[in-house]
Design goal:
6 strands, 2 domains, single chain, alpha/beta, 33% helix, disordered N terminus, elongated, 6-stranded mixed sheet, 11 helices, disordered C terminus, Nucleotidyltransferase, domain 5
Length: 297
Amino acid sequence: MPGARRSPGLIEDPVRSPSAARRGPTVSAPAARRGATVSAPGTRDGRFEVAGWHKARRDPDFAEERILWSRGYRHVAGIDEVGRGCLAGPVAAAAVILPPDWQPHGLRDSKLLKPEERNRLDVEIRRHALAWSIAFVGPELIDRINILQATLLASTLAAARLPIRPDALLLDAVSLPEVPVHQRVLVSADRLCASVAAASVIAKVARDRLMVEYDAIYPGYDLAGNKGYAAPEHRAGLDAIGLSPIHRLSFAPCRDRQQMSLWQDADADASVSGEADENDELEGFEADELEVPIPLD
């Protein structure tokens, strides 16, 4: 896909939300760098609890983007991730800067869309967006630094790879401490913000296509169907043939299982046509050394 850089180896005029607490706090870049975070310390995955009114929202709009535009932030990027709960494959994150007040018909959080709807929206978003990027962080690094940190890293990489420097970021329930850009964090942002919903769509489509390729390399788990999630067919494959090189060994269903010799000589990364070779991008870095600044224009 032209315009994207991916790392398979590692990696309205609507009314504002009901209250500032519900919309989520704003995190300034200095506060983010000092370690201020809106992650919920009492939750296992670092995310806020989703309020009922968020769950009821299905059609995102530009309410939050307009607030930021009115404050002088010209290029507002939405960021979202997919694949956090999978047993196999990478976690993916995308960043999208949409033109003011343009959004494709039917845009929603990718989880609410049928595959054919996602594919149509993916084409439209990449064609009309001012800028977009996708990043992957693979299972070995997920096991090394944990899924939350891997998700933050993928999101940071997606922000850093945008061909247009963003002035502000809209994020879903987590902030990016290493990104020196104004950040607005909302609960369930993919249901509220058009740019975040757009990011969720292109990240989902890209990762699903990659999992279809993995299914051809590592058959027996129905990865093309379940996309790496813990579906019955996937668990049956684990019982029958063990782990493949793309399984996340730190996840409970995979922990303490054996990797079968069937896959010992297989390459853990699918070859994706047209991708840049960035397999060594993060090699040798410790988790606390992974800082990716956003490049200047």
